[in-house]
Records
---
Amino acid sequence: MWVATVPQQPAGPVPTIFTARPNPKLVCRYLPKPKSFRFGAFGIRLRLNKYKVSAVKKQLPELETQKPDSEKLRVGQEKGEGFDLGWLPAFPHVFIASMSNFLFGYHIGVMNGPIVSIARELGFEGNSILEGLVVSIFIVGAFLGSIGCGFIVDKLGCRRTFQIATIPLILGALISAQAHSLDEVILGRFLVGLGIGVDTVLVPIYISEIAPTKYRGSLGALCQIGTCLGIISSLFLGIPSESDPHWWKTMLYIASIPGFILALGMQFAVDSPRWLCKVGRLNDAKAVIKNVWGASEVEKAIEEFQSVIKNDGSDLDSSWLELLQEPNSRVAFIGGSLFVLQQFAGINGVLYFSSLTFQDVGITSSALASLLIGVTNFAGALCALYLIDKQGRQKLLIGSYLGMAVSMFLVVCAISFPIDEQLSDNLSILGTVMYIFTFAIGAGPVTGLIIPELSSNRSRGKIMGFSFSAHWVCNFLVGLFFLDLVEKFGVAPVYGTFGAVSLLTAIFATYFIVETKGRSLEEIEMSLSSDFMSRDK
C-alpha cells in the first residue's frame, strides 16, 4: 500500500542531466598527427592515431549504454517511449483528498430515489415542503462549512482540517441511517452538508498546494472525477431501493465508510509545504518537497515560499476585510462570479430535467437516465484530465461554456421549431448529453481549480470560502425556483436563458481569467501583485 512507503521518502522526479557525447569526426580531427616508428629492416610502420580512433569508436556504444537514468528517461520521452511519471509521488495524497469529492457526489445522488421511501416510513409522504427541506438542509450546512473552512485551514493546515471535517460526515451519515423521525434525518443531512462544505473548499486548496506545477491541472481534475464516481456509485446502490423500502438505511450506512477511509488516509498524507513554511516548520516543508516534487526543487521552492511570505506577512490570521483590498478583491470577484455564472448557466436544472427528457424517448427508468448522465459526466472529466495542462485553463473554460451555449440553443430549437417529433426528441437528447459533456470538460473542474491558483497564499482559504458560499447560495436558488420557472414560462425560454448565461460566461472568461498553466502559485501571486502595484503608480 502507498501509505507504507510515504515515510521512506520516495524519490521524486530525477533532474535532467545532459551528457556530452563524443563525435568520432571531431575526435579524429583533434588527435595528434601520426607518429611513425620503424622496427629494424622490416620497416613496419604503426600509426598510433589509427588505434586511438578505433578505440574511441568502440567506446561510443559503451558510453551510450552507461548514460544516467535521468538521461535515458529524457531521451525516451523525446522519442515518445515510456511514460512521464513525475505526477506519481503526489498521486496517493491527491487520491485520498479526492475521497472527499467521492463523498460529495455520493450524497448528491443518495437522496434521488430513496426520498420517497424515507418520507413514507417517517410519516411525511406527500408533503413536498418537508421533502424539499430534507434535501435542501444539506445546502445550508454546506454554506456554513464553506464560510468556516478558511479560518480552520489557516490555523491547522489542510491535513488536520480534512480529519476534523470527517467527524460531521460520519456522524451525519450514521444519524440519518438510524433515524426514526424527521428531525433526526434533518440533523443528519445538516451535519453531512457541514462536512461537505468544508471539503469542497479544502480539496482544491490542498491539491493546488501539493501538486507539482507541471501536473497541477491534471491532478486537480481528479476532483471532478471523484464527484462523478460518487454520483454513479450512489445511483448503482440506489437500484434496490425501488423494491426494498428500507434499503435507504443501508445506503446511508455505506456513506460513512469513505469518511473513515479519508480520516485514516490523511494520517499518512503530507501537509501543504506552503503552509508548513508559513508556520515555521521549514525542515518539514523541505521533506515534503523532496518526496513529492523532487530533491532538485527544494531550494527554489523554499526561496519562492519565503519571498511570498515576506511580501504577505508571516502571521497566520488573515482577515475577511483583506478581501476588499487589491489584488484579493479582484480574485474574490472572479471566484464569486465564476460560481454564480456556473450555477445560473443551469447545470443543476438540466440535470434535474434530464430524466424527463429521456422519458420522452422511451427511457422510463429514472435510475438508468441518471446513470447515462453520470457516465457522460465521467467521460468529460477524463477528457479534462488530459487537456487541462495541455490547452490551459482559459481555453478550456471558454470552449466549455461555448459548447454549453450551443447545446442549450440546440435543445431550444428542437422544442420551438415545428419539426418531426422523433427528430425533436433526438435533438433534445443530443443537446442534453452535449451540455453535460462540455460542462465536465471545463466549467466543472476548471472553476474550482483556477480560484486557488489565482489566490494569494495568505488569503487563499478566505477567498475559496467566499467563492463556494456564493456557489451554495446560487445552487439553492436554482433548485428552489427552477420548476416554477419552467411551469410559468416553459422549457425553451428557461433553457435559452441558460444558453445566454453560458455565452456571457465565455466572454467573462476571455477578459477576466489569467492563464495559470505551467506557472507556480508564487509566480502567479507575484505577477498579480506587481500588476496591481504598477497600475496603482
Note: The chain is about 75% helix and 0% strand.
---
Amino acid sequence: MGQSASAAAIPSRRESNRDSHRSKPKSTAAICPMEADDESSEIVNAAYDFISDLPDECLACIFQSLGSRDRKQCSLVCLRWLRIEGQSRHRLSLDAKSDLLPFIPSLFSRFDAVTKLALKCDRRAVSIGDEALALISLRCRNLTRLKLRACRELTDAGMSSFAKNCKALKKLSCGSCTFGAKGMNAVLDNCSALEELSVKRLRGITDGAAGEPIGAGVAAASSLKTICLKELYNGQCFGPLIMGAKNLRTLKLFRCSGDWDKLLQVIAERVTSMVEIHLEKLQVSDVGLAAISNCLDLEILHLVKTPECTNVGLVSVAQRCKLLRKLHIDGWKANRVGDEGLVAVAMSCPNLQELVLIGVNPTRVSLETLASNCPNLERLALCGSDTVGDVEISCIAAKCVALKKLCIKSCPVSDIGLEALASGCPNMVKVKLKKCRGVTAEGADWLRASRPALAVNLDTGETIQDASASDGGANDNNAVELPAALAIQPVFLGIASSSSTGRSTTSFKSRLGLLTGRNFVVCALRRWSSRNNS
C-alpha cells in the first residue's frame, strides 16, 4: 500500500511542477508590465514604413542599381516610387510610331531627366514626324545621345528644330532615315559638343555632283572624334566633314560605294590624329593605304574584304605606323596579302597585341617572325588559312610566349598540333577550334587533361569575335523600352494584363510579379512595403 501511495504521489508532483511552469509566464507578465510594452513596441516598429523616412535621392540611387525589369516593377508600388523612378531614369527607348505623338507631353513629364533617347520604328509602320521630334526636343533640352531607327517621316525641318533645341548633343546615330544634307548640317552647326556621328542608309542625301555636301560645321572644328558611315550610296558627300574634323580619332567606313583612294589622300593630309581606321567592303587600293600611313599615331587597323589592297600597301602602313596594336585582315582568299606584308608588320610594329587573319595564307616564315619580334602578342586568330597546319601551330606554341587566346577555324590542323599546344604558350588561357577536320574530340579531351586551366572549345559553332575587350560594352541596366501608354500609366495597364490571365486576384503584388527576389535590394524593399501594408 505504501508503494502504491508513493507511486500515486509522484505523478501529482510532476503535474503540479508542469502547471507551475505553464503559469509562470502569465504571472511574470502581470508583475512586469515593461515586457508587455516592449512587445507592443516591436509590433509597432514592424508595421512602421521605414522607406518613408528615406530621402528621394537615396531611393533614386537604389533604383539606378536595378535592372530595367525591376525598375518598372518598383514604379508600380506607389505614386512616390513612380515619381522618383521616372525622375531618376536617364536612358529611354521608345517605339517611335506615329501614334506616339499625343503621349509625348505626359511621357516626358514623368521622364524629365532623360539624357539618352532611342526612337525606333518598325519598317512596315508609319514613324513619328517633325512635330513629334520638335516636341521631344522641347521637353529634353539636356539630351546628350539620340538614336533614330527607321524614322522615315522625319525631314530636314524636323532635324533642324531638334538641333536648335538640343545643343548639348554628344552622340547621334541614325539609320534608315530619309532626311537629307540640310538636316545633317543643322546638327553639325548647332551641336558644338557632338563627339560621335554614326550614319547608316541615309536615303535623303541627293546623289551625284549636284548633291549638297555635308559641311564641317562647328562640331567638326572642336569636338567631333568618331565618324562611322555604313551602306551609303553617296558616302563621299561626308568628305568635307571628315577633312574638317581636326580632332578626329576614329574613322569607320563600311560598304560605301565610290572610289575612296583620292578622298583618303586628302583626308590623311589634313587629319593626322586618327588612331583607329576600319575599312570594310570598300573600293580602296594600295594608294589609299599609302595615304593612311601618314597617320603616324595609328593603333588599330581593320581591312575587311578589300581585295585591291596588297602586300605593298600593308608594307607602307607597317613601316610608318609603328604604334600599331591591333590588326585585322580579311583577305577574302584573294592571296594578295601574305608573308611579305606580315613580315613587315612583325619587323616594324613591336607593340602588336592582336592579330586576326581571315582568308590569308601565312606560312611558318611570317608566323615565326611575328612571334620573335612581337613579344606582346596576346590574341591570334587564323581562319580559312590553307597554309596553317601542324607545323605552323607548333611554331606558334614554341615562339609565342605571351599568347593568351588562340582561335583556329577551317585550317588543316590535326591532333598533332594540339600536342604542341600542351607544352607551349605558357600564358595561354583559351583555345577555340572550329571546323578543323583533323582535330578530334579525343585530341581536345587530351589537351584539357594535359592543361586543366586551359579552356578548350571544339566546334562550338560560335562566330569569331574580336578578342579585345574594348569593342564590347556592358549592358546598361537603366535602359528600358516602353510603349507610350505603359510609360504613362503603368499601374492600370499592369492590372489589366494580369486580370486577363485569369489568375487569382488576392495579391496585387504577386499578380504583377512585383519586386522579384533576384536582387537583394528589391527583396528588402518588398519586405518593408509588405510590413507597411500589414
Note: The first helix runs from residue 2 to 31.
---
Amino acid sequence: MASDELAKAVEPRKKGNVKYASICAILASMASVILGYDIGVMSGAAMYIKKDLNITDVQLEILIGILSLYSLFGSFAGARTSDRIGRRLTVVFAAVIFFVGSLLMGFAVNYGMLMAGRFVAGVGVGYGGMIAPVYTAEISPAASRGFLTTFPEVFINIGILLGYLSNFAFARLPLHLGWRVMLAIGAVPSGLLALLVFCMPESPRWLVLKGRLADARAVLEKTSATPEEAAERLADIKAAAGIPKGLDGDVVTVPNKEQGGGELQVWKQLILSPTPAVRRILLSAVGLHFFQQASGSDSVVQYSARLFKSAGITDDNKLLGVTCAVGVTKTFFILVATFLLDRAGRRPLLLISTGGMIVSLICLGSGLTVAGHHPDTKVAWAVALCIASTLSYIAFFSIGLGPITGVYTSEIFPLQVRALGFAVGVASNRVTSAVISMTFLSLSKAITIGGSFFLYSGIAAVAWVFFFTCLPETRGRTLEEMGKLFGMPDTGMAEEAEDAAAKEKVVELPSSK
C-alpha cells in the first residue's frame, strides 16, 4: 500500500486531452501580460522620464518600485472579489483597471499625475497577478497542472519582452512623446483581455463552493480525459468544500458556507488560528514569494539598462538592444520550463535554478566591481562577463524559481483559503519587490553596484537552504491531495473546520434532503 502511494506521488498521472484547459489557461494568463509589460517598459522608459521631468534618482526608484506596493490593494481586493463574483469576472476587473492606469500614465503631464497613473495600474496588476494563477490551477487536471500553471509566468515574460521591444521601437520619438507612448500602449493588451475573458468558463472549484454542481460538472468534463476522471475530480472537490458525499443535484446548499462564518472564518483558518499543517503551507508560500524577489530578480530586469551602463555600455541603442536580449532569454527559458515541470518535478528544478542563480550573481558582482574600478577605461572581459552573467541569471531564474513560485503557491492551499492564501503570497512578493526596486539605486551608491549583487547572492544561498528543507515535491498530486504533504489529515480542511466549529458551538449544519 505504501509503495503504491509512493509511486502515485512520484509518477504523474497519464495526460489526457488538455486542449480546452490550455485555451482557458492562455486566456486567463493574459492578465499577467500587464505586469510583465510594466516591468519591461519601465526599464527603458525610466531613462527618458528622468530626462524629461528632471527628477532625481530617489524619485525615479520610487516611481519604478511603488507599483508593487500599490498592487497590494489589488491582490487582497482580488481575493475577496474572486470569492464573491467568480474568478472569470475578476480577470475583467484586472484588465479594465490596468487599461485606465495605462492611459493615465501615457497622458501624464507631471510627476504627480504619473504617480496617480502608477497607483491605478498597480491595483490592476495586483488583481491580475492574484487571479491568473489561481484560475489556471483550479481548471487544470493534475497530470498537466505544472505545464498549464506556468502560463501566467510565461505571459509575464512575454509582457517583459513586449515592454523591451516597445522601448526599442519608440526610443527615437521626441523626448516628451516617446516614454508616454511606451506607457500608454500598455492599454492595448488589457483591452483585448477584457473582451476575450467571456470565452472562458468559470472555475469548477468556485462553482462547487457556490453549490452549482451541474455547471462544475460540465466544465470538468471538458477539461478531463474521461467522464470517470471528471466524476472523480468533482467528488474530490465536493469533499474539500465540505459537501456530503450523498448530497447531489444541479444546485445544492453548501453546508460549510453557512457554518464557516464567511470571510472571517477564512481569515481565521489561514491567519488568526491556523492548524500546524496550514501554518506550514502559509510559511512555504510566503517564503517562496519572498526569496523570489529578495534574490534580486527585479533589480536585474528593471534596472538592466543602468546595469549594462555601469558595465561600460554607454550608447542608448546598444543598451536597449542588450535589454531586448534579456527579454528574449527570459521568454525562451520560461517556455523550456513549461515542458520540464511535469517531467522533472518542482523541487529539482527549484534547487538547480537557485544554485545557478547564486553562481551567476557572484560572477555579475565580480564583473561590475572590476568595471567600477576602471571608470575611465572599458574592460572588455568585464563587460562580457556582466552580459553573460546577466543572461545566465535570467536563464536559471526563468527555468525554476520564476515559474515555480506561482505554480507551487496556487496548488498547495486548501480550497476554502486558496484565494486568500495566494493573495498573501502575492502580497509578500510585491512588498519585497517594492523594497528591492525602491532601494537598488541607493543601495548601489552605499555598497557599490557590484556589492549589491554579492548581497543578493547571499540571500539566494539562504533561499536554497529554505527550499531544500521546507518544500516537498507536489508533482502529480491533485489539489485536494496537497494537504497530506504538509501533515494535514486525510479528512482535509473541511472536517478540521467542522471540528473547530463544533467546539465553538457555531450554527449547526442545515439538514440535506
Note: The chain has two domains: 15-253, 262-484.
---
Amino acid sequence: MAAPAAGPVFWRRLLGLLPGRPGLAALLGRLSDRLGRSRERRRRRSPWLLLAPLLSPTVPQITSPPCCLCPEGVHRFQWIRNLVPEFGVPSSHVRVLSSPAEFFELLKGQIKTAKRRVVMASLYLGTGPLEQELVDCLESSLEKSLQSKFSSDLKVSILLDFTRGSRGRKNSRSMLLPLLQRFPERVRVSLFHTPNLRGLLRLLIPERFNETIGLQHIKVYLFDNNVILSGANLSDSYFTNRQDRYVFLQDCAEIADFFTELVDAVGDVSLQLQGDDTVDVVDGMVHPYKGDRAAYCRAANKRVMDVIHSARTRQQMLHAQTFHSDSLLSQEEAAAAGDRRPAPDTWIYPLIQMKPFEIQIDEIVTETLLTEAERGAKVFLTTGYFNLTQAYMDLVLGTRAEYQILLASPEVNGFFGAKGVAGAIPAAYVHIERQFYSEVCSLGQQDRVQLQEYWRKGWTFHAKGLWLYLAGSSLPCLTLIGSPNFGYRSVHRDLEAQIAIVTESRALQQQLHQEQEQLYLRSGVVSSATFEQPGRQVKLWVKMVTPLIKNFF
C-alpha cells in the first residue's frame, strides 16, 4: 500500500472509500504513479489542473469485494461497478445504429408498439413536421391504450430543458401541450431549469444566451424494456442529415428501469408543465431558481444518488441470486428448465455527470480510462464540439496510448452559418483546435496524437464518445456513448448521461469497430496546412474573446 499512500490527495481520499480492496487500491496506485510520471515529463503544467475536477466527496461507498468466481469477474473494467450499477446482458441484445433515418424510424416504431411506458429525455423537441410525426405517434399509442380491451396503461414521461424548450413562440412546450391537455393523467412533461440561472442574471440574459448557463443535456429514449442511448436530440436535422451515434438495447428490463427512475428523479426536481402552459414545482420540492440554491442542489443530489445507490444494490442482489445462491439448481438443470439467465458477455455501466448537484461519476470514470490506457492501446475519441477540459487535454498529451480524435470541420459544425455572435462559434473551435494541434507538435507527439476532421456535404456532425482498443487488439472492447462532449460544459454546467459498454463478444466488437470506421472514413487528417486553407483564418476579435467564453459552448 506504500505506492497509493504516497500518491496525490485525490487517490488517498478515494482509497479511504475502499476498505479491504487491495485490487482496486493497486489500480489507484498505478494511476497515481502514472500521473506522477506525466507531471515529470511536463513540468510546466500544474498537477492541480489535472486533479482539481475530481475532488468531490460524492463517490459512492464500496460495500462488497469484486467477484472473481462468476462471469462478471472476468473483464478488466469491473472496477466501474464500484461506482455505479452493473448490468450484464447478452451481446445479441445490443444493436448499433448508423444513420439519422434509422434512428427516426426506430423511434416511431418503438412508440407505436409501446404498451406500458414511453420515457424520453432530450435537450428539446423541435417544431417541424417530422417532430409532429413523433407527437402524432404518441397520441395514437395513448389513444389505443385507452380503447384497448386488454390491460394497458401506457404512461408517457418527457424530460426537456426549460430554457431551450421555451425558446420562441412555437417551441417544445407548444408541441406537447395538446398531448398534456388530452391525456392529463397519462402524460408528464418536466422542464429542467438549472439552479445557476437565477436572480438578476436570469432577468438580464436574453433568450438563447441564457442556455449557456446550464442545460438538461441527457438523451435517452425508452419504450417498455427497450432503450436507445444517443447524443441526438428530437429535432428534424437529427432525423435526416446530422450525424450522431445511437445504440439500441433490446429487452433489457433492469436498464430500462434504471433510466426510467433516473428521468423520474430529474423530473421531480424540474418544473412541471401544466395544461395552461404554466409551470409548477413538485409538491415539497425547492424551487430551482426562486428557492435556496444550496437546499435545492442538496435535494437534487439525494434524489439522483438514491436512484444510483438503489439500482446498484438491486444489481448486486440479482447477481448473488443468479450466480451464488445455494438454493438454485445447478447451471445445467436451471438452463434446461429455462430458469437460469445466459451468462452475459457484455456489461453496461450508466455514467452520470451532474456537477451542479456535485455528481461527477462520468468524469471520474472517463479520466481513469484515459489514464489507464497503456502503451500500444488506441483510443478513438470523437466530439462534435472540440473543446476538451484541461484535465482531459493533460491526459491525452501526458499518457502513453495512441489517440485519434475526430472533430467537426467548420462546415459541418452545427453553428456554421448561424446569425449574429453564434456565427463566430465555428471560428472559435478552429482557434481551439489550432492551439491544441500546436501543443501536440511542440511536444513532438504527432505520431501518437492525431486530429481528424469530419466532412460530409450537406451534413452536420454531432457524434461523441470513444472506442478503446487494447494493445494488440484490432477490435474495441469498450465504448462510451451518450450525451457528453468532453468539454467544460459537459463536465461542469450541464446534466449528462452516457453508458460504458464493455464486451467480450466478437460480433458486438465488430459492430462497434464498423461504427468507428464509418465515421472516420469521412474525415481528413489535420496538419499545419489545414489551418492555411481559405476560411480558416480566425479574426483577431474571435481569438481574444475565445478564452473568455470557451467554457460556455
Note: The longest strand covers residues 346-354.
